[in-house]
Specification:
CATH topology of the largest domain: Carbamate kinase
Domain PUA: 323-421
Protein name: Aspartate/glutamate/uridylate kinase
Number of domains: 2
CATH superfamily of the largest domain: Acetylglutamate kinase-like
Largest sheet: 8 strands, mixed
Family: Belongs to the glutamate 5-kinase family.
Biased composition (Basic and acidic residues): 463-472
Organism: Podospora australis
């Protein structure tokens, strides 16, 4: 189509789209169509990434194992067996169309480490510039429960955000989202466009297959992550992968003429560091807009008009929070005004963490002068508004919270910074507070102070964070 620029397209395929649930045989008909679709997109000038599950499923077939085992070591062994055969299958299919591919295996630790995150970003972008289609999967052979993404829906969203993709396709066994379960409710209505995920009312009871780990709910979470980074996200049926091309053309036609661009990544940052570039694919389409019969049924999640990208996205979704800082409303107002977080604005600290580890930032309704019966220095609810990398360890912050910066040397015997957290190390989910994406992670609280901490006074073991609003 003339007058349209090439797009960055990420296609996520679950295990049920790659392997038959009962026989564990590869679904060659679907895989072949995916390959043809990806190559067609490449010939149209688009840059394509495939996030592929299926290693364990293929391993089950190779070893004639009937059911997915529960023990982690067996799953890792099957993943090691299946991954090489899965990539061999992809390479064989793409080779028929003379399309080179590459394998990228990631764990959450690769994302959490800033250097490895940037290396992965640069490698993927270089592959795309070379005309290669990267095939990304979680490194199940090495990943344990503490460092797993949990499902490839989340991995695909993080990958799409990492390379500033334009579109993320989450392929599933239904055409789109419905307001009710279409399998049990004949009057279920499709949801074609979602402008605000926070107000979404849809049936997400569809669970993942017996071979996979995802389901419709994980796709909603992935859509939250991707759209917060400015990526238009589409849910559509995996058995008709050719629909992707028609949907891409429809989205290209529905937006205003773009400015020339050659790469997926590298938008210009705003003066305050947090990228406020308008979403490239914000389409003026609502769920009530008549849909052409030529456009395949799908659900499209519109991107945020104020996307969070690069280091700010990494702070929010690449790192596992090790604790929580509770701040007063005045401190939050100052942070929104681009100031750093001072010790005077910190009401309380929870968790055990070292310097430069990620923490949650929660705003309390009202602080107390003395601890209440629950032991807290604040009352009411606390709303999580973002994440931060701290300049001080948890036990250090416990000693300086509520004090002026000038008092820090006397309290600690030194002062690394006047700020508990620099403004450039703080990232917010949403300034409006209406809805915010949450990276699904298994929270793990250390049982001792990390060696990197210089603090002398240990904190008591933290309890559950009751009263903290952290839901989806």
């Amino acid at each position: 189509m003339r007058g349209t620029r090439p797009l960055g397209v990420v296609i996520k395929l679950g295990t049920s789209s790659i392997v038959d649930e009962k026989s564990h045989e590869p679904l060659l008909s679907i895989l072949t169509l995916i390959v043809e679709t990806a190559v067609r997109l490449r010939k149209d000038g688009h840059k394509v990434i495939i996030v592929s599950s299926g290693a364990i499923g293929v391993g089950l077939r190779r070893m004639d194992v009937e059911k997915r085992p529960k023990h982690l070591s067996k799953l890792q062994a099957l993943a090691a067996i299946g991954q090489c055969r899965l990539m061999s299958l992809w390479d064989s299919l793409f080779n028929h169309l003379r399309q080179p591919i590459a394998q990228i295996l990631l764990t959450r630790n690769d994302i959490a480490d800033r250097s490895r995150y940037l290396n992965a970003q640069r490698t993927i972008n270089e592959l795309l510039d070379m005309g290669v289609i990267p095939i990304v999967n979680e490194n199940d052979t090495l990943a344990v429960s503490e460092i797993k993404f949990g499902d490839n829906d989340t991995l695909s969203a993080i990958t799409a955000a990492m390379v500033h993709a334009d579109l993320l396709f989450l392929m599933t066994d239904v055409d789109c989202l419905y307001d009710k379960n279409p399998r049990t409710n004949p009057d279920a209505q499709p949801i074609e466009v979602v402008e605000d995920i926070g107000s979404l009312v849809a049936d997400v009871s569809t669970a993942g297959s017996s071979l996979g780990t995802g389901g419709m709910s994980t796709k909603i979470v992935a859509a939250r992550l991707a759209t917060s980074a400015g990526v238009t996200t589409v849910i559509t049926r995996s058995s008709n992968p050719g629909n992707i091309i028609n949907i891409v053309k429809h989205i290209q036609a529905s937006r205003s003429p773009p400015s020339p661009a050659s790469k997926i990544a590298q938008p210009e940052p705003s003066s305050n560091g947090q990228n406020n570039t308008e979403a490239l694919l914000q389409a003026s389409v609502s769920s009530s807009t008549p849909r052409s019969n030529k456009i395949p049924l799908h659900t499209r999640f519109l991107p945020s008009p104020h996307p969070v990208r690069d280091r700010y996205f990494w702070i929010l979704h690449g790192l596992r929070p090790h604790g929580t800082l509770y701040i007063d409303p005045g401190a939050y107002k100052a942070l929104v005004g681009k100031a750093g977080l001072l010790a005077a604005g910190v009401v309380d600290v929870e968790g055990v963490f070292a310097q430069q580890e990620a923490v949650r930032i929660c705003v309390v309704e009202k602080k107390r002068s003395t601890p209440g019966e629950d032991g807290k220095l604040w009352e009411g609810t606390a709303t999580e508004v973002g994440r931060a990398l701290t300049n001080y360890a948890s036990s250090e912050i416990a000693r300086i919270k509520g004090h002026q910066s000038a008092e820090i040397p006397a309290l600690l015997g030194y002062m690394d910074s006047e700020y508990v957290a620099q403004r450039e190390s703080i990232s917010f989910f949403s300034f409006s507070g209406v809805s915010r994406p949450a990276t699904p992670v298994r929270e793990i609280v250390a049982s001792h102070e990390p060696a990197a901490s210089r603090a002398q006074t240990p904190l008591a073991s933290p309890g559950e964070e009751k009263g903290v609003v952290v839901g989806l």
